[in-house]
Amino acid sequence: MKLFKDFPYVPKIMVTGGAGFIGGAVIRNLLKNSESIVFNIDKIGYASDTTSIEKTIKTQKKDISHRYKLLKVDISNKSDILSAVETSDPDLVLHLAAESHVDRSINGPKAFIESNILGTFNLLEALRKHYSNMNSARKNSFRLLHVSTDEVFGTLDKKGRFDESYQYDPRSPYSASKASSDHLVNAWHHTFGIPVITTNCSNNYGPWQYPEKLIPKIIYKAINGEKIPIYGKGENIRDWLYVEDHVDGLFKVLEKGKLGQKYCIGGSEEKTNNEIANFICNYLDKVIPKNYSHKNLISYVEDRQGHDYRYAINASKIINELNWEPKTNFELGLKITIDWYLKNMDWMEI
């Protein structure tokens, strides 16, 4: 799929948080499937990694290094993000920079307020100045895609699914900070006319995900023969979305989505934490058998504070309006993910 082939000129694309899990997947796809000039705006924090991007650049048939630029910038710094916007002079912006780990937000909320709320505010103000200085032709093409989470909607019981009209009810410092950023983006669209679109996605998984997240943590612990910590009784449910399918959805929204609208992107793959842990352990029992079952490593620990019971997304809007749907079923995607980590255990040690 050739991205942005209908764009009136070769676009300059700014990706905030491009050294993160989803941001890295976005940039790899842009470098492989478009001619765009890509600016990666990232503070290079503890979970940042550009290895996958560097490998992508090195393995292309022609030299594309001139199409990629990393700007080490913390969006919570007003002057730095303003300078980054001036340097990149973007035609399109994908805003993925965020602190995103719920446990860390419980232990230290301040970093989430600074990055997710203040950082988004700084970006919006820098883009407001940038947009006001554009000529009419560039204004017609410019847009900001704000990438958010389904966690802003709170929790579900055993029935129902989140959609674009669902009331916000965040329960953790992380989700509250993301909800705040969503509201800021919406306000800057209506008040200042910034062309924006917001997406709310379900839990992502796939290769290159930082090991603190549930799926890579289970894989890492199991491979190393360590106890696999599962909160509570392991009955909490999440809707899982393979990262490449998410990125495909983001590009559909960026190219064809309606300004000022919101799109929920989900995988329609609801699994309990127990189901995920058991699947991973059963698969590892087959591919790297031990003298015990990996399931013996599962250990239930005290539940997380304010642990939401269930997330599930109704993605009918993006499916019907933009002709997007997830291509990777959960079992296949999880096998691909486990196999990747088995081959890249050295990366897991970063």
How would you explain this protein's 3D organization?
With 350 residues, the chain is an alpha/beta fold. It is built from 13 helices and twelve strands. The strands form three sheets. A seven-stranded parallel β-sheet has the order 3-2-1-4-5-6-10, sandwiched between helices. Strands 7-9-11 form a three-stranded mixed β-sheet. It has a two-stranded parallel ribbon with strand order 8-12. Helix 3 crosses helix 5 (110-132) and helix 8 (214-223) crosses helix 12. The chain starts with 11 loop residues before the first strand and ends with a helix. The mean pLDDT is 96.
List the helices and strands and how they pair.
Elements (H helix, E strand, L loop, with lengths): L11 E5 L4 H13 L3 E6 L8 H9 L8 E5 L5 H11 L3 E4 L6 H6 L2 H23 L3 H6 L1 E7 L23 H20 L3 E6 L1 E3 L8 H10 L4 E4 L5 E6 H14 L5 E4 L4 E3 H15 L10 E4 L14 H7 L7 H14 L1 H4 L2
Parallel strand pairs: 1-2, 1-4, 2-3, 4-5, 5-6, 6-10, 7-9, 8-12
Antiparallel strand pairs: 9-11
What's a quick, concise take on this entry?
This protein is of the alpha/beta class and 350 residues long. It has helices at 21-33, 51-59, 78-88, 102-107, 110-132, 136-141, 173-192, 214-223, 243-256, 273-287, 316-322, 330-343, 345-348; strands spanning 12-16, 37-42, 68-72, 92-95, 143-149, 196-201, 203-205, 228-231, 237-242, 262-265, 270-272, 298-301.
Tags for this entry?
seven-stranded parallel beta sheet; 350 residues; alpha/beta; 12 strands; three-stranded mixed beta sheet
